[in-house]
Amino acid sequence: MVLEADGSATVEDNGRGIPVGKHEKGISAERLVFTTLHAGGKFDDSAYKTSGGLHGVGSSVVNALSTRLTVQVKNGGRIYEDKYERGNPIVELEDGLLPVVGRTKESGTKINFLPDDTIFDRTRFKEDDIKSRMHETAYLNPELTIVFEDKRKEQTEHIEYHEPDGIIGFIRDMNKSKESVCDVIYFKGESEGISVEGALQYINEFHENVMGFCNNIYNSEGGTHLTGFKTAFTNIINTYARDLNILKEKDANFTGTDVRNGMTAVISLKHPDPRFEGQTKTKLDNQDAAKVVSKLTADELVRYFDRNLDTLKNVIGCAEKAAKIRKSEERAKTNMLTKQKFSFDSNGKLANCESKDAAKCEIFIVEGDSAGGSAKMARNRAYQAILPIRGKILNVEKASIDKVLANAEIKTMIYAFGCGFSEGYGNDFDITKLRYDKIIIMADADVDGAHISTLLLTLFYRFMPELIYEGHVYLAMPPLYKAMPSKGEEEYLYDDKALEKYRKRHKGPFTLQRYKGLGEMDASQLWETTLNPETRILKQVAIEDARMASEVTEMLMGTDVPPRKAFIYEHATDAELDV
Q1: Which of 443, 450, 446 shows the shortest CA–CA distance to 387?
Q2: How far apart are CA 360 and CA 381, in angstroms?
Q3: Least confident residue range of 76-85, 350-359, 495-504, 539-548
Q4: Any catalytic annotation for residue 446?
Q5: Residue 424 pairs with which residues in a beta bridge?
Q6: What stretch of H or E contains 11?
Q7: How far apart are CA 300 and CA 282, in angstroms?
Q8: Which of 312, 322, 445, 514 could form a disulfide with 261 if both were Cys (CB 3.0 to 4.6 A apart)?
Q9: Is 448 a catalytic residue?
Q10: Contact 181, 203 (CB under 8 A)
Q11: CA atoms of 4 and 156, how far apart (whole Å)
């Protein structure tokens, strides 16, 4: 994988090469793959054993969204080449076949493409995202070597990803800075044509990190494979705990949360016919996956624990500790979360909406009393709620759970959302109880506003992640400027790029007003620019790579300073300064 100096990307492999023979439609199979939807190889059972693709649209869509795309296929001692411009082929076929441009003893496919800047606002590839995905793929395929080069820098960056330890190394890498309770536990097996590979380790921390993959695709919302693993593992630990007389007859079983607290796990599934919920493949939906993973987990981990009693006792010890903390916290925190004297909205800041239909309702978290006052006047009371907060909330990445739950602003939000908080604190999070379909962070368009948004997102990500994973969290985009020409209509401009475009297309004189904060807008302006669903701009918050998101959150918001300083130095040139 090469990020070229001209902004294009080159991907090359040493596989057998995309088929170049004549298809029944009279053209090369390669031409069909890059110009026709639903033409992928996974529709033929003999092409792949497993595949991450579903609909056969990936290559043709990339082609259509590229200014140019070049394909070279090495096959049968020859090099074939095809070229496209914005999805249209520019190479003339010879009797339906690609022209031969050279000879070789190698095999494979090489593709170079340049994203179309008339479609995308930004066409620069994010090297960190690409490197994270490649490293992840190397862990999931221990016999694979991936070479990455970035030629856009003064000195070419060259990295080789090869992880012979596979997902065992993946777990060790994620836990490298943590205190481990046991060594990595590994198991694998195959049943009904489905292969399962799993690795897990316990660390001395009070949270879980269980990641699921199907055919090398990360499923951020989990799915049936993780359900099968979690159910089987909970049953195994409870059975052993009773056999060892750790759980007495009168004791209740450990909960799933108890047995997984402190667990870091990776479950990798290879399925011949995967089904996902949605094109983004965030959640696996195959019912047979749950059955196979559950069976193999039970069989293999029982065999492992029978031979490693000390490790088993350490794991049960983690569950015991989690259960004790949960029970004591339930008693202590239930009062904090539910008793009237700790009422979240005792200060009366929440201006709720009239509708009780969660699907229609939205809540705006607004910084400052002045902006909150304007928002309350501007909103549509039928379905828009306003929650003003005072300044910057607590950084939950650095704070203890007691301080988090004692924070007035956080308690107000927990009460307002209505769906609880994390797990094990007397009011477990339940996304089905959410009172608002949209939670919209409305902060000023400056550095302080960005910091407030970051603190709020850290809170949601660490303690209410389902809000983000299920698409309920948004960032409002208030305008930075208002252009008032001497002739013509006034126009709101949302960033400096919009201002630059306005200056180029507007010939006459105009007055420019810069909004330093939401409080500077009157109610009608706030409604028109930020609250009105017909005219406003919202950014939906999404997480594509949970492992990378967790690491970056810990690095940027945590207590360890040197990694944060190194990140700032490395990305200093990427910063958008508000000066």
Answers
A1: 443
A2: 12
A3: 539-548
A4: yes
A5: none
A6: strand 9-13
A7: 27
A8: 322
A9: yes
A10: yes
A11: 10
Helix (H) or strand (E) holding 442: strand 438-442
Domain boundaries for CATH 3.40.50.670 within the chain: 344-478+539-543
Taking 70 as the threshold, does the pLDDT of residue 338 lie above it?
A: no
Query: What residue spans in the chain does CATH classification 3.30.230.10 cover?
Result: 167-335
Q: Cα(267)–Cα(464) distance, rounded to whole angstroms? A: 23
Residue ranges, CATH 3.30.565.10, the chain = 2-125
pLDDT at 538 over 80: yes
Rounded Cα distance between 525 and 551, Å, is 39
Give the Cα separation of 142 and 169 in Å (integer).
10
Distance set, CA 463 to CA 108, 212, 351 (Å): 46, 20, 24
Task: Choose, from 13, 320, 446, 554, the residue flagged as catalytic.
Answer: 446
Rg of the Cα atoms in the chain: 27
Is there a contact between 89 and 83 (Cβ–Cβ < 8 Å)?
A: yes
- What is the distance of C-alpha 139 from the center of its chain? 19
Q: Beta strand pairing status for 481-485 and 510-514?
A: antiparallel
pLDDT digits (tens, 9 = 90+) for 269-316: 999 888 887 666 788 989 999 999 999 999 999 999 999 999 999 999
Return the bridge partners of 442, or none.
Answer: 366
* CA pair distance 252, 8, nearest whole angstrom: 59
- DSSP letters, 13-49, are E-SS----SBPTTSSBHHHHHHHSTT--GGGSTTT-S
The pLDDT score that the predictor gives to residue 576 is 61
Please tell me the pTM assigned to this model.
0.67
The two tokens of residue 81 are: 């080449």
**Structure confidence at residue 247 (pLDDT):** 92
Burial 528-564 (b: 16+ CB within 10 A, else e): bbbbeeeebebeebeeebbbbbbbebbeebeeeeeee
Are 74 and 124 in contact, with CB atoms under 8 Å apart?
Answer: no
Q: Which of 163, 221, 258, 444 is catalytic?
A: 444
Cα–Cα distance for residue pair 147/131, rounded to 1 Å: 10
Query: Quick one: tokens of 78?
Result: 């020859």
Under 8 Å between Cβ of 492 and 479: yes
CATH of domain 167-335: 3.30.230.10
DSSP letter at 99 equals P
DSSP strands (E only) in 464-519 = 473-476, 481-485, 491-493, 510-514
Identify any residues that bridge with 148 across adjacent strands, giving them in sequence order: 159
Please give the DSSP secondary-structure letter assigned to residue 6: T
**Structure confidence at residue 337 (pLDDT):** 45
What is the fold of 2-125?
Heat Shock Protein 90 (3.30.565)
Q: Name the active-site residue from 299, 448, 466, 554.
A: 448
- Residue 491 bears catalytic tag: no
Residue 482 φ/ψ, nearest 5 degrees:
-130, 120
Q: Using one digit for the tens of pLDDT, what is the confidence trace for 146-173?
A: 999 999 988 999 999 999 999 999 999 9
Respond yes or no: is residue 560 known to be catalytic. no
Q: What are residue 276's phi and psi, to 5 degrees?
A: -120, 155
For the domain made up of 344-478+539-543, the CATH class stated in words is alpha beta
Q: Which of 300, 367, 409, 423 is catalytic?
A: 367
